[in-house]
Amino acid sequence: MIRVLVADDEPLIRAGIRMILTSAEDIDVVAEASDGREAVDTARSTAVDVALLDIQMPVMDGLTALAELGRVAPGVRVLILTTFGERDNVLRALGHGSAGFLLKDSAPQELIHAVRAAAAGNAYLSPAATRHVVDTLASPAATTRGEEARRRLAGLTEREREVLALLGEGLSNADAGARLHMSEATVKTYVSRILTKLDCDNRVQAALLARDAGLEPSAG
User: Domain named Response regulatory: which ranges (predicted)?
Assistant: First the structure.
């Protein structure tokens, strides 16, 4: 079972998320929190695999809670719940090591898929919210980010660059393996090596680097 913590200051939203997630036979909502501090304290004392954090919460907001969880419960994968008007917060969340993000009005199946992806160690980028990131990447500052990203990717082997390009497309280890004719375990080894070389905390950060650098999957 995937053990989930849901943190949101609105009881109705928490109830709705719980109802959706518990409809999946492999997911169990083991705890809820009404603010970021409560979420951190709960994750410290309760076995949790994935935490869903709203960005806007009292006492401690979701981004601060995300950073704190990275220190006190590094094994917990964090998904950030966001709205269309919070693009900068999305980018900050990814920078702080979030496993991904999705919009509060996402379809129920998308929420379930995101939790499963995070629990499996994969990144989940909501297609709708990703458009906000792409808009930012197209800003004038993107030129500087692109130069820095290409510098960091310079130390990767050709095979590592191929794997990273597929991470940038949001592919899972299994899908990347199928595309590259490699086993899922081999892809996982490559991903671990890539994260170490790029000094990235997770796949999402590596995927954004790939996009900044303009890395594209090979035609084959």
Answer: 3-119
Provide the whole-model pTM.
0.66
pLDDT of 92 reads 72
CB 30 within 8 A of CB 3: yes
Using CA atoms, how far residue 18 sits from 32, 133, 164, 208, in Å, is 9, 28, 34, 30
* pLDDT one-digit tens code per residue, 16-27: 999 999 999 999
Read off the pLDDT of residues 147-199 as tens digits, 9 standing for 90 and up: 888 999 999 999 999 999 988 877 778 888 999 999 999 999 999 999 999 99
Closest CA to 48 of 1, 85, 90: 1
Q: Mind giving me the DSSP string for 138-195?
A: TSTHHHHHHHHHHHHHTTS-HHHHHHHHHHHTT--HHHHHHHHT--HHHHHHHHHHHH
Place of tokens 């998904």: 79
Q: What is the CB neighbour count within 10 angstroms for residue 19?
A: 11
Measured in whole angstroms, the distance separating CA 152 from the mean position of its chain's CA atoms is 21
Is residue 48 within 8 A of residue 21, CB to CB? The reply is: no
For residue 164, give every residue at least 6 positions away whose Cβ sits within 8 Å of its Cβ, in sequence order, or none: 153, 156, 194, 206, 209, 210, 215
186 close to 177: Cβ distance less than 8 angstroms: yes
Quote the pLDDT of residue 204. Answer: 74
Q: Which of 8, 52, 60, 55 is nearest to 33 (CA)?
A: 8
